[in-house]
Specification:
Number of strands of chain B: 12
Structural class of chain A: mainly alpha
Largest interface: A-B, 54 and 55 residues
Shape of chain A: globular
Number of helices of chain B: 11
Distance between the termini of chain A: 52 Å
Oligomer: heterodimer
Helix content of chain A: 55-70%
Strand content of chain A: under 5%
Helix content of chain B: 25-40%
Number of helices of chain A: 26
Chain lengths: 490, 406
């Protein structure tokens, strides 16, 4: 071995151990970087006076703009790009898979995870989620997976959920994120994790447990003022009796226990369900609740709030509800209508990134290299949005208000990340700067890349307050841009 | 566009205080504390029969000893005709006599597993046995108060990790010291960074204007705190160990007006299966830390007594009879302590469960019988001392009984 090569290997080993990376992760970083998961030599920047429509589209449908995304969107055209995102199976995602697929607990049958320790399960599903959000090219799919994860919230720390959520993530959320609404709810209703989380497995003939039935109506379908009564909750619970979890052989698998099912006649929301339905009662119930006008409105409203504005424009909600009804709850068709609407186009830069979005976004805009180790997860925890940790069934709130106390941690994360001080994450500001090109005074050149527009006069003035010496240092400037109010919004 | 001049913004940053009307401090004694030797039932002979070597002797002069009589290092300190403090709790005696320290006897959960892990988890999650809710009770408490001016320091845990009780909180800071609360800028002078941030947030027309100001305010306050050596008030002296330092940091945060609503702090070393000791020994050393720490905290925060409530709990008490290794094994109920201006102090609330004829409350694997669900106590603390009207969201499905502690 010649001296030069030995020195190189030594320096690689030192860097890697400082970052706490495993050998495998080192190789993955190298390979994915070589194969294009990195910053291109030259990238397009959106630098109008206000946020440009293409940047806005990327901003709202992804966890952040990866260097080169804007060029690709321009090349393809908006409609083709949206169609591609709506058919994620056509997008080659092997580079992301290299980072995220190796967590084996994500691929087991429900129940096999009982062989693992809780910290391993928690770490794998959390890292998997963050890595997919940062590196997947199926960005809209990831955003929607996040949306349904909140809608059908399951807290890892309740009961046995930590053993069962990995398969729920795969077989419920990810299997149906862009599918048909009722299929999603059907999968969730008999998902082992949900049967534990909302006590469905305890729901048996004569002593129904109404927990799941109530949340099914209140949160998952009709919505809190959806026009159902306490009787409807009770009757829905009766329909759902008998879905149990195996506790010994094939532990964690679902089975329907006829003996424990209440097979009498039920009446839900005015519709009669004849006796003797057995396990088909579930589908009869879902036929009623998943297409109820309140459900249609509830889901349309939530999608508009998620992608357009906290205070949703009624006309758009109406149109989306129309699409839901016409297509039988086809999520893709609703999104297609949404992204081509004038309402979507108007509301630029008005929503607040939640902590998870903010962190994934910082990493994407910088084209960072990470394997989502503990330091990143700790920042999420500090800001109150570690994946799958929301305690109550309503999921992490989408509104801005609950997240307004997180600025200090956002600032510290921004400054640390840009200065390469977040352990196990690497960024290259120089490479980004050179890909952007532009004037030597860096804030003017860098700001539009992260925010989709030029700086305003007060923003220019703010950066002018940096003393000479700091102003020229791009890591300081980038840290401040990530910490700025403009970057907290999308 | 907000009509606020730059000078206003800066002045607010410089002097503003983030109001947290009330602060709850939760001290968790990890390991299952033997509260029978802390709040000693000297009025019951069977306590002495079952603890031949580790019992705390009755107060000098017995139950008839007048208040304020000579206190001894080797006997219980009289609280009333039935109970006395462990002598190492002496620093807390004035708090009890002045009515700021209240005790609730026979508190516990319905977890009979005897497992530290399970019992702590259940209690910190605020759950009943076999029924999980999701998140911790303090996390749910804070979530039920969303829209209530949460700051990055609304919930602070002193120590390396977020305790289970705070899981699900809208913001959580796990810190060892107030010194960790700062703008960390490796690349540039933090002052310059702060100036720029301040200018950026000042020009913000939307929803981040107020939070930006609040956060910068908070940084200024913490900075000015850091700049001065912290001087305790009223001659309070914290024990020189992690527990004492932790309490001191919490006191600093309370005084700094940074919006602290809930603080958590652990004190370990209570799992006294072996050589527990009596008036001296292993447990006495922990009691000493606890007593001096809490008394210093109370003294230091004299001006804030109406705003601050301290709750001291543990996952379970220990058995009444001592074991073969001069220690005690895992039991059930314990005595919970609470300190604060809102506490009905100077009293031991709840029944003494040891008086039933069949000894069921005394013996067997269960230990002292649980007469008051810990959630009833916490509900009272949250609703009356912390003004949370939505305790049904904190302990969903639980029907609290009145305790009278707050």
């Amino acid at each position: 071995m010649n001296g030069k090569r030995r020195a190189l290997l030594k320096s690689v080993a030192v860097t890697a151990s400082a970052a706490g990376l495993t050998g495998c992760e080192r190789i993955i970083s190298r390979v994915t970087g070589e194969l294009g998961q990195s910053i291109p030599d030259r990238i397009m920047v959106s630098a109008g006076e206000r946020i440009e429509p293409d940047f806005h589209l990327l901003s709202r449908t992804t966890y952040g703009v990866w260097p080169g995304d804007l060029d690709r969107l321009r090349r393809m055209g908006r409609e083709a790009w949206i169609e591609e995102q709506l058919t994620p199976e056509t997008i080659d995602d092997r580079l992301c898979d290299l980072r995220a697929r190796r967590f084996e607990t994500l691929w087991h049958e429900p129940g096999t995870c009982y062989e693992y320790k809780k910290p391993v399960l928690r770490e794998e599903i959390t890292r998997h989620t963050l890595l997919r959000a940062v590196y997947s090219r199926r960005q809209l799919f990831e955003v929607m997976a996040g949306f349904w994860t909140d809608h059908l919230n399951i807290n890892l720390e309740k009961g046995d959920c930590i053993y069962l959520k990995p398969s729920d993530d795969r077989l419920v959320i990810r299997a149906h994120s862009l599918g048909r609404f009722q299929d999603l709810i059907r999968a969730s209703a008999v998902s082992p994790a949900m049967l534990v989380y909302l006590d469905g497995k305890e729901n048996v003939k004569n002593i129904p447990n109404e927990n799941y039935a109530r949340e099914l109506l209140e949160l998952h379908t009709l919505g809190v003022h959806g026009g159902y009564t306490q009787d409807d909750v009770y009757e829905a619970a009766r329909c759902l009796t008998g879905w149990r979890l195996r506790t010994r052989w094939r532990k964690g698998m679902v089975q329907f226990d006829t003996e424990l099912h209440d097979d009498g006649e039920k009446r839900v929301l005015g519709v009669r369900i004849p006796p003797g339905g057995g396990e088909r009662d579930l589908d009869r119930l879902l036929d009623i609740v998943c297409h109820h006008p309140s459900t249609v409105r509830h889901i349309a409203t939530k999608l508009v709030q998620k992608f357009v504005a906290e205070d949703p424009p009624t006309a758009l909600v109406d149109r989306l509800a129309g699409v839901f009804t016409k297509t039988g709850g086809d999520i893709k068709s609703m999104l297609r209508e949404l992204f081509s609407s004038p309402e979507f186009d108007i509301e630029r830069g008005t929503k607040l990134k939640r902590p998870f979005h903010f962190i994934a976004g910082c990493l994407r805009f910088l084209g960072a290299d990470t394997h989502a180790h503990r330091p990143l997860i700790e920042f999420l925890q500090r800001m109150g949005q570690a994946p799958f940790q929301h305690p109550t069934p309503d999921g992490y709130p989408d509104e801005a208000a609950p997240w307004l106390g997180t600025l200090l941690w956002r600032w510290n994360f921004s400054l640390a990340l840009a200065a390469n001080q977040v352990p196990s994450v690497r960024v290259s500001i120089d490479r980004l700067m050179s890909a952007i090109g532009g004037p030597p005074y860096s804030p003017l050149a860098l700001f539009p890349w992260f925010t989709g527009r030029q700086m305003t006069d007060p923003e220019v003035a703010a950066f002018d307050r940096l003393p000479k010496g700091s102003r020229e240092r791009n890591e300081t400037v980038v840290g401040l841009i990530l910490a700025s109010p403009a970057f907290q919004r999308y | 566009m907000k009509e606020t001049t730059r000078r206003d913004f800066l002045r607010q940053i410089a002097i503003g205080e983030v109001a947290a009307d009330k602060t709850l401090v939760c001290v968790f004694l990890r390991g299952g504390a033997d509260t029978l030797n802390m709040v000693v039932p000297y009025g019951d002979d069977r306590y002495y029969k079952l603890r031949p070597t580790i019992a705390i002797p009755p107060p000098k002069g017995g139950a008839e000893s007048p208040k304020g009589s000579a206190e001894s290092k080797d006997a219980a300190l009289r609280l009333n005709d039935f109970y006395g403090f462990h002598p190492m709790m002496q620093p807390l005696l004035p708090l009890f006599r002045e009515g700021r320290l209240g005790i609730v006897q026979a508190v516990g959960s319905d977890n009979a597993s005897g497992s530290h892990f399970e019992a702590q988890d259940q209690m910190e999650h605020g759950e009943g046995a076999g029924r999980t809710i999701g998140g911790g009770w303090l996390g749910r408490h804070l979530r039920s108060r969303i829209g209530h001016n949460l700051t990055p320091l609304s919930a602070v845990a002193i120590g390396p990790a977020v305790p289970e009780s705070m899981r699900g909180s809208p913001t959580i800071s796990a810190i060892n010291s107030i010194d960790e609360l700062q703008l960390v800028s490796a690349a540039a002078d933090p002052g310059a960074v702060k100036t720029t941030l301040s200018a950026l947030y000042e020009s913000e027309a939307g929803l981040l204007y107020d939070p930006g100001r609040t956060t910068l305010q908070l940084l200024s306050r913490v900075e000015s705190l850091r700049a001065q050596v912290y001087k305790t008030e009223n001659g309070a002296e914290y024990p020189n160990d992690d527990f004492g330092h932790g309490l001191r940091e919490i006191a600093r945060l309370i005084k700094a007006g940074v919006g602290l609503e809930v603080a958590c702090l652990d004190l370990g070393g209570w799992d006294t299966h072996f050589f527990q000791g009596a008036t001296g020994g292993l447990q006495a050393a922990q009691i000493d830390l606890l007593g001096r720490g809490l008394a210093a905290f109370d003294e230091d925060l004299k001006r804030w007594r109406d705003r601050v409530t301290v709750v001291v709990m543990t996952e379970f008490g220990r058995r009444v009879y001592e074991n073969g290794s001069l220690g005690t094994d895992h039991g059930r109920a314990f005595a919970l302590l609470a300190i604060g201006g809102h506490v009905n102090g100077g009293k031991v609330h709840g029944q003494w469960p040891g008086l039933d004829e069949d000894d069921a409350g005394w013996l067997g694997p269960g230990g002292l019988k649980v007469l008051i669900d810990y959630r009833s106590v916490l509900t009272e603390v949250l609703s009356k001392a912390m003004n949370n009207p939505r305790t049904d969201q904190v302990f969903p499905g639980f029907k609290p009984e009145p305790v009278g502690l707050v």
